[in-house]
TrEMBL record:
Residues 23-168 form the Pseudouridine synthase RsuA/RluA-like domain. Dual specificity enzyme that catalyzes the synthesis of pseudouridine from uracil-746 in 23S ribosomal RNA and from uracil-32 in the anticodon stem and loop of transfer RNAs. CDD domains: PseudoU_synth_RluA_like. Belongs to the pseudouridine synthase RluA family. This is Dual-specificity RNA pseudouridine synthase RluA. The lineage of its organism: Bacteria, Pseudomonadati, Pseudomonadota, Gammaproteobacteria, Alteromonadales. Its EC number is 5.4.99.28, 5.4.99.29. It catalyses: uridine(32) in tRNA = pseudouridine(32) in tRNA; uridine(746) in 23S rRNA = pseudouridine(746) in 23S rRNA. Keywords: Isomerase, rRNA processing, tRNA processing.
Length: 237
């Protein structure tokens, strides 16, 4: 699937939250790829921008292009291995905030549904009880609007599009989601209303537990329903 009107935000080039000799933490804006796409017009990405300043920087994990929020980037191979291992073993802690369509009957719950790539419709993912990989998400409602709810999401696993598909499976797609939202939910927001708000991990050298925060830009605010041409998607994001 081709990229739709990729016009990533250009100022500032990036928002640095934390820096030391082992790692960098950024607040990625919605509309910016984490890593470059294959086509030259999709070259601009957080990784490319960061590596111009820190050539030894290495991506540890990703956020979907339309998702905003916290990303950690390692400095050097040893730190990259140590941080990557934490994500692989689920030693990290991540919290997201989202606006979803409608009002769930329960105030909190767990989604435990296996996911697999929907190849004919990639990059979409889908629930598949036979071939899918185990995927779990904790969720709780923290606020309500007229047609939507504010939720806190805690992924236990880290599958591609996990939060987006799990919310869809509850009948409450994330607002502004161009891949999964129905017409009414898509119309309520100009961007995907999903933000990586907190990230906790062990420092790769000192082993100290670190917690980073990036306040959610859309909680408790009027829905941004104006047309936004910066948001699109690519085959592997």
């Amino acid at each position: 699937m081709a990229l739709i009107e990729y016009h990533p935000p250009t100022f500032p080039a990036f928002e640095l939250i934390y820096q030391d000799d082992a790692l960098l933490v950024f607040n990625k804006p919605s509309g910016l790829l984490t890593v470059a796409g294959k086509a030259i017009e999709h070259r601009d990405s957080l990784a490319v921008r960061v590596q111009r300043v820190w050539p030894e920087a290495r991506i540890v994990h990703r956020l979907d292009m339309a998702t905003s929020g916290l990303i950690v980037i390692a400095l050097g191979a040893d730190n990259h291995r140590a941080l990557s291992r934490q994500f692989e073993t689920r030693a990290t802690k991540k919290t997201y905030h989202a606006l979803i369509w409608g009002h769930p009957e329960q105030s909190e719950g767990t989604v435990d549904l296996p996911l697999i790539c929907d190849w004919p419709n990639r990059p979409k993912q889908m629930v598949d009880h036979e071939r899918g990989k185990p995927s779990q998400t904790l969720w709780r409602v923290i606020g309500e609007g007229e047609k939507h709810s504010e939720v806190e999401l805690t992924p236990i696993t880290g599958r591609s599009h996990q939060l987006r598909v799990h919310m869809l499976s509850l009948g409450h797609p994330i607002l502004g989601d161009r891949l999964y939202a129905h017409e009414d939910a898509l119309a309520l927001a100009s961007r995907l209303q999903l933000h990586a708000s907190t990230l906790g991990l062990y420092h790769p050298i000192s082993n100290e537990w670190l917690t980073f925060e990036a306040p959610c830009p859309f909680l408790g605010k009027p829905l941004p329903t104006s047309v936004d041409k910066q948001i699109g998607f690519v085959a592997n994001h």
